[in-house]
């Protein structure tokens, strides 16, 4: 199976059939898709200016979508490298028990679904790299009360998500499943109460 870089080369290769170039971009999302496969594809298409079902997009638009994906992947890989180094140092210093960020991180290794969007049409508008930088910054500071991506405070606890974990606080403004470690206990309780109130 081709890796991300090999697929990216195919997307850029003007000698490749356009259908293969588009297919290769879709396959890149099996390696790295911050919002999940369908939502990340919808995001890239809308930002690059071609339709999700467009079978013959402008090759320059395909490359623009790939470049946005690559930049975000670089941001995430740098975070994973830093995370690995931190855990190695903590283990060396005797801290064997991982924290809540570590628990969350295990579910998102490789960058799939780090900012999961259950509805593929509802996702942040900003470039993927900007979204990931905001998310990483939130993971590295004290828990807060709002969405780390858009700053929205309308968080609703949703169940039956097509993701692991299958429930959690979803930002009703930008659509991401907000990682539990970035929210304070009070914000989590408020999100849960919001869910209960909505279903009453």
General description of the model:
With 200 residues, the protein is mainly α. The longest helix has 34 residues, at 59-92. It is built from 7 helices and 2 strands. A two-stranded antiparallel ribbon has the order 1-2. The radius of gyration is 18 Å and the shape is globular. It has helices spanning 4-12, 18-28, 37-48, 59-92, 100-107, 128-139, 185-199; strands at 155-158, 168-171. Helix content is 50%, strand content 4%.
Key terms for this structure?
2 strands; two-stranded antiparallel ribbon; single chain; 200 residues; mainly alpha; disordered C terminus
Helix and strand succession? Answer: HHHHHHEEH
Q: What's the total number of strands?
A: 2
Q: Mean pLDDT across all residues, rounded?
A: 90
Strand content: under 5%
Q: Label the structural class.
A: mainly alpha
Q: Looking across the biggest beta sheet, what order are the strands in?
A: 1-2
Shape: globular
How big is the Rg? 18 Å
Low-confidence stretches: 195-200
Biggest sheet features: 2 strands, antiparallel
Output the number of helix runs.
Answer: 7
Structure summary:
With 200 residues, the chain is mainly alpha-helical.
Mind sketching the topology for me?
Layout: H1 4-12, H2 18-28, H3 37-48, H4 59-92, H5 100-107, H6 128-139, E1 155-158, E2 168-171, H7 185-199
Antiparallel strand pairs: 1-2
Helix pairs in contact: 1-2, 2-4, 3-4, 4-6
